[in-house]
Amino acid sequence: MIKFLDLQKINLQYQNEIETKLLEVFRSGWYLMGNQLSNFEKNLSDYIGAKHSIGVANGLDALRLILRAYMEMGVMKAGDEVIVPSNTYIASILAISDNGLTPVLVEPEINTYNIDISKIEEKITSKTKGILIVHLQGRVVFSDELTEIAKKHNLKIIEDNAQAIGAAWKGKKTGNLGDAAGFSFYPGKNLGALGDAGAVTTNDDDLAKTIRALANYGSNQKYVNIYKGLNSRLDEIQAAVLDVKLQYIDNENNIRRQIAKRFIDEINNPAIILPEYPADENEHVWHLFVIRSEKRDQLQAYLTENGIQTLIHYPIPPHKQEAYKEWNDLSFPISEKIHDEVLTLPLSPVMSEEEISRIIAVTNTF
Ligand SMILES: *Cc1c(COP(=O)(O)O)cnc(C)c1O
User: Fold this and answer.
1) pLDDT, average across residues 149-164
2) What does the similarity note say (predicted)?
């Protein structure tokens, strides 16, 4: 069977280095807010090119903390609106509504699955304070037009970079394109920890300081609390593991690109629509290889019968979720079509040539 994602195999690539680090942290007697975290934060900042990195507990917290910090700083207030793609993973939207802000959904482009920048401006009102872009599936969404819209309406650009670490637009990495970015190091992400982990990157000194305090009970100084904060920390074990794996992320992303290229060159079934390979290959790190078919459910069953595990990212659009009942009657036809037709093929840096060839062959005989 070809697994959707073989996490064991991915992590065992670095077995010696990771086990040495785990033992070092275990024996050190220091488990939170230590050298492992500060080293990883420094290396992540260098890698992304942003001035500040702040390790936090997970990707959802990273986004929640960015928005909460803007509220504490007076940039946003309860009831303000934040634009977000209508087909994103639910966490991007939860981060907004959790802060008492209003998510305003904008449809994606069908060929990139990313927010349609040309549809943003019509959704801007006097309450709009930010645009939360999501580099979905590992593909960059950014343009000079987006920067101009944000400037013209005085909006913050926040990147959800959970799926696209290592991607770049015109030589600048995702996580350094907007005003602040949230990262997830959930085990299945391109840079995955051994549990939950996340980070924020930004070049904004005040924002970084506010987030550091908010993530630490609202305190910059022990037992002195300036905000009603939370506890959202990246622990030493996760930081140590991530610091090892960060060294190999470019290599892994390049292998992902080669596999994506093979899929796109060699899958030729007319019942399947393939994702677009961007003209600048740096704009995609292929976190997910998402195809589309009107016969999606039959295709998935056929692949399963032939020993190929697939997943659907995502089966229910956010506006059809029970959690957002107030949106259930709204219509986002492009998102709905995407959610009805997409299927994600296995794509990971530890797949063998035989596995890749088999996925291509089986997909073509459907
Ligand atoms: C994974 C993910 C998140 C949430 O990250 P967690 O670490 O699981 O909290 C947010 N947004 C997107 C797009 C994601 O893929």
Assistant:
1) 98
2) Belongs to the DegT/DnrJ/EryC1 family.
Could you give the 3-state DSSP secondary structure of residue 105? strand
pLDDT of residue 22: 98
pTM of structure? 0.98
Residue 198 Cβ < 6 Å to ligand 1 = yes
Indicate the Cα dihedral angle 126, 318, 120, 283, nearest 10°. Answer: 140
Q: For ligand 1, say whether the CB of 5 is within 6 Å of any of its atoms.
A: no
Per-residue confidence (pLDDT) for residue 253, from 0 to 100: 98
Structure-token pair, residue 132? 């939360």
Residue 91 Cα to ligand 1 midpoint, Å, equals: 6
Identify the sign of the CA torsion 68, 201, 203, 284.
negative
Measured from the Cβ of residue 290, the count of other Cβ atoms closer than 10 Å reads 24
Average pLDDT over every residue of 120-145: 98
Confidence of residue 125 (pLDDT cuts 50, 70, 90): very high
In whole angstroms, give the CA distance from residue 338 to residue 312: 10
Q: Is 240 helix (H, G, I), strand (E, B) or coil?
A: helix
Q: Residues of 273-289 as b/e, b for ≥16 C-beta within 10 angstroms?
A: bbbeeeeebbbbbbbbb
